[in-house]
């Protein structure tokens, strides 16, 4: 009794299978017919698988390129957003500082006092101007005026 394939060790299996194949009667005519029928079938199957795998490979390559381009666009957008955020932050800081200087430097009472002083100065200037016009009118010949 020959050893069963399940009872033999893994290294003995190929030898057992080969011995069994060798013990089978071989009809060379059937083998060549079978070979001639299977060879084109296997070639066509291999070509179909190769075409499928090539198509999938091209699709994956195209997807990789699109992903890389999208990533580049998003990196550029992120850089632009970061620059804009930094600029806005700088503007806010500058304007906040300017407003704090304005608010702490002068109070409304101080501005009101300065406006009052300016109004008093304008009144004095107008009075001086009227006096000057009167003097010029006295000194200048009749019918001639220096004022426009």
TrEMBL record:
<comment type="similarity">
    <text>Belongs to the BLOC1S2 family.</text>
</comment>
<dbReference type="Pfam" id="PF10046">
    <property type="entry name" value="BLOC1_2"/>
</dbReference>
<protein>
    <submittedName>
        <fullName>Uncharacterized protein</fullName>
    </submittedName>
</protein>
<feature type="compositionally biased region" description="Low complexity">
    <location>
        <begin position="1"/>
        <end position="11"/>
    </location>
</feature>
<feature type="region of interest" description="Disordered">
    <location>
        <begin position="1"/>
        <end position="24"/>
    </location>
</feature>
<dbReference type="InterPro" id="IPR019269">
    <property type="entry name" value="BLOC1_su2"/>
</dbReference>
